[in-house]
Amino acid sequence: MNTQVKNLQFPSLPYAYDALEPHIDAMTMEIHYTRHHKAYFDNLQAAVKDTEMADMPFADLLKNISKYPVAVRNNGGGHFNHSLFWTIMSANGGGKPQGELAEAINKNFGSFEAMQEKFNTAAKTRFGSGWAWLCVKSDKSLAVCSSPNQDNPLMDVAECHGTPILGLDVWEHAYYLKYQNKRPDYISAFWNVINWDAVTKNYTNAI
Ligand code: MN
Measured in angstroms, how far is the CA atom of residue 94 from the centroid of ligand 1? Predict the structure, then answer.
């Protein structure tokens, strides 16, 4: 995140396209990663080329995104959000978090199930395209929220602010091939592939 925007790398996918089957199908993964994410990445680089934005740390750009062109907001958000998304899933995912993160979830939401329900509602009720988030606020408490399009809680334009540690892409491109209009089924399936070790790492880095 301290990397200058011009030096950002398109990340490698940490598993095979079919690794998250049957919950997320291989064709969706391949198209999502190689076309959608790659396009956000390329379009971000094109949008910042030969501007002051190219030399800014990526975190600073996102934090001050209201000052910059909408193409940078959409594609910069798209790059950040997908980069996070790939890492918080794995073939051995699912279950529940342990330790510090489990305690924080219980403290903030009452139980894992209560957090899960709140997250599901955020993901289901985000009208149109966007993301659902579990994030760490500046007072180190946890919050669930959603954002439209490729916005995220790091952006100054966001309704909820914080450091996202878990995110779910609810754009139709993330689920339509397998789930068509049944977004709730895709959201339910997501819980089977969450990499809680990665989310816990994000949590400890954030606090
Ligand atoms: Mn996407």
Answer: 21
Calculate how far, in angstroms, residue 131's C-alpha sits from the geometric centre of ligand 1.
Answer: 9
175 CA from centroid of ligand 1 (Å)? 9
Nearest 5°: phi and psi at 96? -130, 155
Residues in the chain: 207
By the 8 A CB rule, do 28 and 177 touch?
yes
d(CA 78, ligand 1 centre) in Å: 7
Q: How much is the pTM? A: 0.97
d(CA 39, CA 85): 16
Q: Which residue has the tokens 């089957």?
A: 21
Helices and strands: H and E segment counts in the chain: 9, 3
Query: How much distance in Å is there from the Cα of 107 to the middle of ligand 1?
Result: 31
Please report the pLDDT score of residue 133 as a whole number: 98
**Would you state the structure tokens that stand for residue 48, as one six-digit string?**
């910042």
At residue 22, the 3 state secondary structure works out as: coil
- Beta bridge pairs of residue 131: 147, 169
Query: What was the pLDDT predicted at 136?
Result: 98
Eight-state DSSP code of residue 32: I
User: Quick check: 87 and 205 in contact, CB under 8 A?
Assistant: no
